[in-house]
Amino acid sequence: MSADFLVELGTEELPPKALKSLMDAFAQGVADGLAAEDLHYTGLQAYAAPRRLAVLVQGLAATTPIKEVV
User: Fold this and answer.
1) Burial state string for 12-25 with b = 16 or more CB within 10 A and e = fewer than 16
2) Helices assigned H by DSSP within 1-70
C-alpha cells in the first residue's frame, strides 16, 4: 500500500536568488531521509516560494520492508 505525502516548511522571506538551491537541498534531504529508513516511493517533486518550501513524495510506501537484524 502507498500514498502521496506532502511536507511543507513555512519560513521567513527567503532570498529569491537562493530559492532554487534551497528547494533542491530540501528535496535531497527528504530523499536521503527516506532512503536511510528504506522507504520506497515512485516520485518526488519539489516546490519553492518566497515563504515556503515543499516536497511532494508520490507513491510513498506505508511501511518499511521487514528486515532481520542480527
Assistant:
1) eebeeeebeebbee
2) 19-36
The C-alpha cell that represents 5 in the structure block: 505525502
- The single-letter code of the amino acid at 69 is V
Full-model pTM: 0.87
DSSP 8-state code for residue 14:
P
> CA 31 to CA 40: how far, in whole Å?
10
CA torsion, ordered 4, 25, 10, 8, to nearest 10 deg: 0
Identify the helix (H) or strand (E) that includes residue 56.
Answer: strand 52-61
The set of residues, in sequence order, having a beta carbon less than 8 Å from that of 20 and lying 6+ positions away, is: 48
At 39-69, the pLDDT tens digits run: 999 999 999 999 999 999 999 999 888 888 8
